[in-house]
Amino acid sequence: MLDFGLGGPEIMSQVLTLELPDDVYKAIERAAESTGQKPADWVSMKLRQQLSAPRKGAPESLLQAMHEQPHLTPSDVESLEESITTGKLPVKWDPVFEGEIGSRP
Question: Looking at the whole model, is its pTM more than 0.70?
Answer without folding.
Answer: no
